[in-house]
Specification:
Number of strands: 6
Number of domains: 1
Number of helices: 13
Strand order of the largest sheet: 1-2
Helix content: over 70%
CATH architecture: Orthogonal Bundle
Strand content: under 5%
Largest sheet: 2 strands, antiparallel
């Protein structure tokens, strides 16, 4: 943001960057949505509902924040939902076998990160388009998870572990604190570090980025590893929240995560977006779904609404690029 003098009037004039304008627009949209829901139903502004919205938004943000960095490079990770499934099931197995939530948590995080690294290697080294590589990985992970679980459910975890997903501190859900921590860390990484700026450069113009000496392959592996690691984080929080693991856990989360990133202002073409914008996108999408529940809208309409939002967000991005 810069301030320039208005020569004709002598008054200071504030110029906002395009990214800042997009964030402000989305904050206004979230505010208007909150206002509309508060007028439509008295249940919206209750403390229980507000905390529930924040908890649900945090769970979505964990998955979408890692996906944001992938999309900033012009890529896409369709395997994040399946990644949650396998990571959660392996973590649950270790917890039940050893009685150690720490070992189980490390297993889930490591599994997610390894899957992300495999995606990154396919994209960076084998030159497989990210859509194809991660779509194939999605089915591989589903197959492994379903075979491994064989229709069984693992449930009943230590109370201390369950606090990660369902506990409170000072009246605020633990996942909300985790979300704030990852939001700050992700924003600083993307906006204030050399690696973060290189990720933006790769998405904006990969040819120019390569000519300037940016190690594109290593940065691509990094962002997919980060996306996988955040899927591992999400798997642990979901596991602790649900207190059970089965083969299809996380299966329906990929589309909402992509929707949150796009609603937050990221471009599928790369180079545009922010982790903070993704946080706002996750909040808006959660508010929409929460409002539908409060207004007793049939839950079968929620996937349709999510799909419409994704299409609209992509159309806005393409319209803006054509106009520019």
């Amino acid at each position: 943001m810069s301030i320039a003098s208005n020569a004709s009037a002598g008054a200071p004039r504030i110029h906002l960057s395009q990214d800042m304008q997009q964030i402000i627009y989305r904050l206004l949209a979230a505010g208007l949505l909150c206002l509309a829901l508060s007028l439509a139903t008295d249940a919206f502004l209750t403390s229980n509902n507000i905390l529930n919205v924040l908890r649900q938004a945090s769970l979505l943000f964990f998955l979408a924040s890692g996906l944001t960095l992938v999309i900033l490079t012009g890529g896409l990770d369709l395997s994040v939902g399946a990644n949650i499934g396998l990571s959660a099931c392996l973590a649950a197995t270790v917890i039940k076998a050893t009685g150690s939530p720490i070992l189980g948590t490390l297993t889930g995080l490591a599994t997610g990160c390894v899957i992300g690294i495999c995606n990154g290697l396919m994209v960076a080294k084998l030159r497989i388009p990210s859509f194809i590589a991660t779509y194939g990985m999605l089915w591989v992970l589903h197959g492994i998870t379903y075979y491994y679980m064989a229709g069984e459910t693992i449930h009943g975890f230590p109370p201390g572990f369950r606090q990660i997903g369902s506990g409170h501190f000072l009246g605020i859900p633990i996942p909300v604190y985790l979300m704030v921590g990852f939001l700050v860390a992700g924003t600083v990484f993307a906006q204030r570090t050399v690696w973060g700026q290189q990720i933006y450069a790769i998405g904006a113009n990969p040819v120019a980025a390569r000519l300037t000496g940016i190690p594109i392959d290593r940065r691509l592996i990094l962002v997919y590893a980060f996306s996988g690691a955040m899927a591992g984080v999400a798997s642990i929080v979901f596991l602790a929240r649900l207190n059970s693991a089965e083969g299809d856990i996380g299966e329906a989360l990929t589309l909402p995560a992509i929707a949150a990133v796009l609603i937050g202002g990221a471009s599928l073409f790369g180079g545009v977006g922010s982790v903070f914008g993704t946080f706002i996108g996750a909040l808006i999408l959660t508010l929409v779904l929460n409002g539908m529940n409060l207004l007793s809208v049939n839950a079968n309409w929620q996937p349709l609404v999510t799909g419409v939002i994704v299409i609209f967000a992509v159309w806005l991005d393409m319209y803006g690029r054509r106009k520019a």
